[in-house]
Amino acid sequence: MAIAKAERLMNLALCLLGTRRPLSKRELRESIEAYLEASSDDSFNRMFERDKDDLRELGLVIETVENLDGEVGYLARRDSNRLPAITLDAEEAAALGLAAKVWQQARLAGAASGALQKLRAAGLPEDVDPYEPHGALEPHIPVHEAAFEPLMLACRDRRPVAFDYRKATAARPEPRLVEPWALECWRGHWYLAGWDRDRGAERVFRLSRITGKVRSRSGRYTAEVPDVVTVRETVAGWAGEIADRSALIRLRTGSGYPLRAKAASVRELDDGWDELEIPYGHGLDAWLVEFGPDVVVLEPAELRADVVDRLRAVAKG
């Protein structure tokens, strides 16, 4: 069955690439033996649509053209389906291989493998096996949230989504309607950056706080999508990576090593605690809560209040 389908796809691709004018479904059916053997028109139409989608997934650019009589035809222009020569050095080829290995165990494994096959056809060195281990380096991006895949597809297809989101300071989730821009991973957690339609502003959502299913919505984007750099800066800011102030905390001796690594100064106290000055940006309150009773916020007052609110929300369940 696999061989028969591969032969059918190859014949369809050759027909579309070899024609100078668009070919109708009727002409394609008469030109390809497997289509002639279809038991009915419905069976042929289903087979043709699947094959057309499969060829597009493989990278073939298929144009749909309507003639003066209203009949739809298909063709694949050679200039639209010709890759330029690609020259990769050993480091570039190794980087592509490592990128493919990141998704080897995920749903994107097939797409990554297909992309590498296309690059091989365009000049990827044959002596580079992207799936062979590169020393001790074994890349891996952990994705445990069920919301990751539907949000990734929504970002790709530019589709608005709806989901229920529980803020760290809230006891119950709230509905959100979002135009998703990009997914970013910070400190081992995945975040979605996008435009919150109900609030009329850009927002960043931590995927682990999305409850239930992510639901696609129809309609176009209402807000302009910023470039990738801006999105990354937004996520970094909301995840606490961009700090514009300092905070003073007490940290139990022998604990909180990530906080100590970021501290601008550390002063030892006599009662089993240390006093640290650390950068203060958006998201610091959520990070401090993760250290539980080992951290006490001294100042500023608003940071202390935010940490207390989060701890109360956790205590309420």
State the end-to-end CA separation. Answer: 54 Å
The run of helices and strands is: HEHHHEEHHHEEEEEHEHEEHEH
Binned strand content: 15-25%
The number of distinct β-strands equals: 12
The strands making up the biggest β-sheet line up spatially as: 7-6-5-4-8
The helical percent reads 25-40%
Mean pLDDT: 80
Identify the overall geometry.
elongated
Q: Could you say which structural class the secondary elements and strand pairing correspond to? A: alpha+beta
**Computed Rg:** 27 Å
Number of helix segments?
11
Tell me what the structure shows:
The protein is elongated and about 90 Å long. Helix content is 38%, strand content 24%. The chain has 317 residues and is an alpha+beta fold. It has helices spanning 2-18, 25-31, 33-36, 41-57, 90-102, 109-122, 148-157, 228-238, 257-262, 284-289, 301-316; strands at residues 23-24, 63-66, 72-75, 161-165, 174-186, 189-196, 201-206, 210-216, 243-252, 265-268, 273-281, 295-299. The model has no long low-confidence stretch (mean pLDDT 80). β4 (161-165) and β5 (174-186) form a beta hairpin. The longest helix has 17 residues, at 2-18. The strands form three sheets. A five-stranded antiparallel sheet has the order 7-6-5-4-8. A four-stranded antiparallel sheet has the order 10-11-9-12. It has a three-stranded antiparallel sheet with strand order 1-3-2.
